[in-house]
């Protein structure tokens, strides 16, 4: 009986304590949403999806803190305005996934509020391929967008952003990629026969025959990556074998200005490798290139083992910094730049401080993991 009495006493005590807790007023947690992301420079990591929503990871460039995600459609392409305040994506939205129609959409986002501003329906011919900066571009005045198409026949959709509608589809048979001119509604594209074609579009959507260059490169022996960097008035291209091509596109057909090798005399069969394999810092006139050893036919997408800073004025490789698994790179534009890299296999965003005093050596200064299954494109936000 004594044990029963003690048990009943303990039970009564527990019930009393529970009743006291129940009588305390429950205060629910309030979930709030920031009106704007934390100020400061950002870096944008594109995680392109082929089986669901793609996402744009917005990360603080200094602290590498996650600020938010822009959710978009399948196989997205991405571009930023020069002030880094507005982002555009081109994505496909498959209504039945495995069959039926697909709607292609150009979406405009306000970066500070991470909010969608509007959508513009574009041609369903939009190229559904791995992301590259040359597949979605803005005109020099940022009043128009260029969207690469492939059916597999190639063309470029020109979108009037003020009017909010496409105004032209420019056929570009045998050519691929978009490289906007420094002025006007013009763009140049790379062609399989080693030439480049330049198109001029009028505000009413009309356009004439392209201006075709002489042969600039050999697509069989020295194929170019279909990406470019703007160095002053000229475009800079890079070949699979590590040749740098400087092309003038200001007036008339594109013209080859200069060509030099960054791999000649280097042991180990080094060559560029990755997706966005180069990035340019205008303040120092330095082209950074992602490089891999033991290059062979078909290895042009292999991840980088080193980053090479190339002085375009002297045509020399200044340093060779070791990196791991980097496929895409992007650099900031200050005199003391910061370089960001993406490892798409493991979804890792890395930051490297670049020291001009040590020949632009890259020092790992931070990383962010789990930025996606196919994190293939990175934009430095300053």
From TrEMBL:
Major subcellular location class: periplasm
* A Pfam family matched in the record: Me-amine-dh_H
List its EC numbers.
1.4.9.1
Enumerate the InterPro entries for this protein.
Metamine_DH_Hvc, Quino_amine_DH_bsu, WD40/YVTN_repeat-like_dom_sf
Name a GO molecular-function annotation. methylamine dehydrogenase (amicyanin) activity
Its keywords, alphabetically, are: Electron transport, Oxidoreductase, Periplasm, Signal, Transport
Keyword Signal (UniProt): yes
Which class of enzymes does this protein belong to? oxidoreductase
Signal peptide from the UniProt entry: 1-22
Task: State where the protein is found.
Answer: Periplasm
Q: Which family does it belong to?
A: Belongs to the aromatic amine dehydrogenase heavy chain family.
- The protein depicted here goes by the name Methylamine dehydrogenase heavy chain
* Organism, as annotated: Pararhizobium capsulatum DSM 1112
């Amino acid at each position: 009986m004594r044990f029963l009495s003690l048990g009943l006493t303990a039970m009564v005590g527990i019930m009393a304590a529970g009743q006291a807790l129940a009588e305390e007023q429950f205060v629910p947690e309030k979930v709030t949403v920031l009106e704007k992301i934390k100020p400061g420079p950002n870096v944008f990591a594109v995680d392109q999806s082929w089986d669901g929503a793609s996402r744009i990871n917005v990360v603080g460039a200094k602290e590498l803190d996650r600020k938010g995600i822009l959710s978009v459609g399948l196989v997205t392409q991405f571009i930023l305005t020069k002030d880094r305040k507005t982002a555009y994506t081109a994505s496909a939205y498959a209504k039945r996934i495995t069959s039926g129609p697909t709607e292609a959409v150009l979406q405009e986002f306000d970066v500070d509020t991470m909010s969608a501003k509007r959508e513009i329906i574009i041609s369903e011919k939009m190229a559904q391929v791995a992301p590259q900066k040359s597949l979605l571009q803005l005109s020099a005045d940022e009043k128009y967008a260029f969207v690469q198409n492939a059916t597999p026949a190639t063309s470029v959709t020109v979108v009037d952003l003020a009017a909010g509608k496409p105004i032209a589809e420019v056929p570009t048979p045998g050519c691929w990629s978009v490289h906007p001119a420094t002025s006007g509604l013009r763009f140049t594209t790379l062609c399989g026969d080693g030439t480049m074609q330049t198109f001029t579009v009028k505000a009413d959507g009309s356009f004439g025959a392209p201006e075709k260059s002489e042969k600039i490169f050999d697509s069989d022996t020295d194929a170019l990556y279909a990406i470019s960097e703007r160095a002053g008035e000229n475009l800079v291209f890079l070949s699979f074998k590590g040749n740098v091509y400087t092309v003038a596109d200001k007036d008339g057909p594109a013209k080859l200005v200069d060509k030099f090798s960054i791999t000649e005399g280097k042991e180990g069969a080094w060559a560029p490798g990755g997706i966005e394999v180069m990035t340019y810092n205008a303040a120092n006139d330095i082209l950074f290139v992602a490089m891999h050893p033991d290059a062979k036919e078909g290895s042009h997408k292999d991840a980088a083992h080193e980053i090479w800073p190339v002085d375009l004025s002297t045509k020399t490789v200044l340093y060779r910094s070791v990196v791991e698994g980097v496929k895409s790179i992007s650099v900031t534009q200050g005199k003391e730049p910061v370089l960001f890299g993406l490892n798409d296999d493991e979804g890792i965003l890395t930051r490297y401080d670049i020291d001009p005093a040590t020949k632009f050596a890259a020092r790992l200064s931070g990383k962010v993991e789990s930025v996606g299954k196919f994190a293939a494109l990175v934009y430095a936000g300053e």
